[in-house]
């Protein structure tokens, strides 16, 4: 079963056509990166999957409607353009989510400390959510998804706002993925595709790649920057210093030092 199936999606903003018979599918339990040049409609697709925009076409999420999955809590979202919090204080928001998940009262304080440390929120638990910056709100949204453990998490251009926390958050998302959660990362930054195994590039057509197989020209042909590690691997291959591409800088360094 696919996590998401989109068939013949059509959408326009006023008289501007965004999608014309767009069709794509996303594997269940995958980490899939959706890339594309600016103004191709990536954030619009995110809003459609959130249920915020009306569209023509067929979309199934886990073989059910978007509305069904939203009502069941199977879909989770993280976006800089859409925040939905229930409480005024960071700590209270996390506690609210823990209580809703049925965490025993005797374990809630320990879970609060554990979750807040995981997503680097331990120093701002008493802050008002309205006083948080974009990065801190994003981290709080990640905390909520870690607690809720939805079947699918869809992310829209969040990681550009994170600094040292980026790898930490990806570790948590990968941990969720290993337990069965599908991660869909919609981004302008090709570097982020290295965290997953599947890549979808939106252009005049929909292109599918496995991260391990994608080539430098696949990015260039779609007006995208080439991830540093792929560019470096290609240059080292040209000088016969490598025999294949590497997607992990540590592994690449180990090979060079052998």
Task: Using brief descriptors, characterize the structure shown.
258 residues, alpha/beta, Rossmann fold, six-stranded mixed sheet, 9 helices, 9 strands
The CATH homologous superfamily is named P-loop containing nucleotide triphosphate hydrolases
Oligomer: single chain
Report the end-to-end length measured between terminal Cα atoms. 43 Å
Gross CATH architecture: 3-Layer(aba) Sandwich
Describe this structure in words.
The mean pLDDT is 91. The strands form two sheets. Strands 5-6-7-3-8-9 form a six-stranded mixed beta sheet, with helices on both faces. Strands 2-1-4 form a three-stranded antiparallel beta sheet, with no helix packed on it. It has a single domain (2-226), classed as 3-Layer(aba) Sandwich (Rossmann fold). The protein contains nine helices and nine strands. It is an alpha/beta fold and 258 residues long. It is 36% helix and 23% strand.
Briefly characterize the structure:
With 258 residues, the chain is of the alpha/beta class. The chain has helices spanning 42-49, 66-72, 90-100, 105-118, 134-148, 166-178, 216-220, 228-238, 249-256; strands spanning 2-13, 16-27, 31-35, 56-61, 75-79, 152-156, 182-186, 198-202, 206-210. Helix 3 (90-100) packs parallel to helix 5 (134-148).
Topology readout:
Blueprint: E1 2-13, E2 16-27, E3 31-35, H1 42-49, E4 56-61, H2 66-72, E5 75-79, H3 90-100, H4 105-118, H5 134-148, E6 152-156, H6 166-178, E7 182-186, E8 198-202, E9 206-210, H7 216-220, H8 228-238, H9 249-256
Parallel strand pairs: 3-7, 3-8, 5-6, 6-7
Antiparallel strand pairs: 1-2, 1-4, 8-9
């Amino acid at each position: 079963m696919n996590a998401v199936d989109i068939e013949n999606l059509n959408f326009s903003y006023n008289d501007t056509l965004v999608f014309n018979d767009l069709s794509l599918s996303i594997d269940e339990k995958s980490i899939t990166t959706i890339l594309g040049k600016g103004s191709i409609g990536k954030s619009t697709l995110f809003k459609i999957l959130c249920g915020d925009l009306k569209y023509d076409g067929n979309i199934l999420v886990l073989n059910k409607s978007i509305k069904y999955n939203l009502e069941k809590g199977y879909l989770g979202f993280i976006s800089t353009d859409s925040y939905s919090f229930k409480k005024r204080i960071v700590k209270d928001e996390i506690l609210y989510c823990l209580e809703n998940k049925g965490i025993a009262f005797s374990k809630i304080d320990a879970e609060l400390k554990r979750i807040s440390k995981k997503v680097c929120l331990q120093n701002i638990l008493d802050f008002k959510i309205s006083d948080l910056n974009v990065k801190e709100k994003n981290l709080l949204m990640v905390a909520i998804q870690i607690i809720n453990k939805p079947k699918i998490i869809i992310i829209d251009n969040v990681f550009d706002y994170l600094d040292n926390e980026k790898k930490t958050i990806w570790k948590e998302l990968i941990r969720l993925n290993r337990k069965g959660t599908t991660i869909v990362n919609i981004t302008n930054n090709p570097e982020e595709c290295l965290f997953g195994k599947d890549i979808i590039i939106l252009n005049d057509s929909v292109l599918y790649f496995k991260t391990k197989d994608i080539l430098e020209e696949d990015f260039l042909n779609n007006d995208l920057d080439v991830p540093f590690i792929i560019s470096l691997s290609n240059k080292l291959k040209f000088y016969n210093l490598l025999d294949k591409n590497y997607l992990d800088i540590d592994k690449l360094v180990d090979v060079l030092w052998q």
